[in-house]
Write a structure and sequence with these properties.
2 helices
Length: about 110
């Protein structure tokens, strides 16, 4: 998995959306990230230091291509605005689902 900066992540995400437009899908995962990159130590060993700020880990996957980024707490608003405009521009290829009408019983 490739860890990118926020701006380069958004440009790569745009490329993933363009490739998946004809056939395929893009899976996005947002999760809280505390900055740990190693497992917690066993009992009796000194614990890892607690994080100073909360981070957000964002992952995107399309077929075999995986990208990710870590967003700091101060940059979340800027990233959210850029991400929402990217989604608005790339979600026009969704298929409409046909709703089946349910028949109600007459009593």
């Amino acid at each position: 998995m490739v860890l990118l900066e926020n701006d380069s992540f958004l440009t790569e995400l745009t490329k993933l959306f363009q490739k998946a437009r004809q056939s395929g899908s893009v899976t996005m995962i947002f999760k809280r990230y505390d900055g740990r990159d190693r497992p917690e130590p066993r009992e009796g060993k000194p614990p890892l230091p607690t994080p100073q700020e909360h981070l957000c880990l964002v992952r995107a996957k399309s077929r075999s291509k995986k990208i990710s980024t870590v967003i700091h707490q101060k940059d979340i608003n800027k990233f959210q605005v850029a991400y929402s405009s990217l989604l608005k521009g790339n979600l026009d290829g969704l298929k409409k689902l046909k709703k089946s009408k349910t028949k109600t019983k007459a009593e």
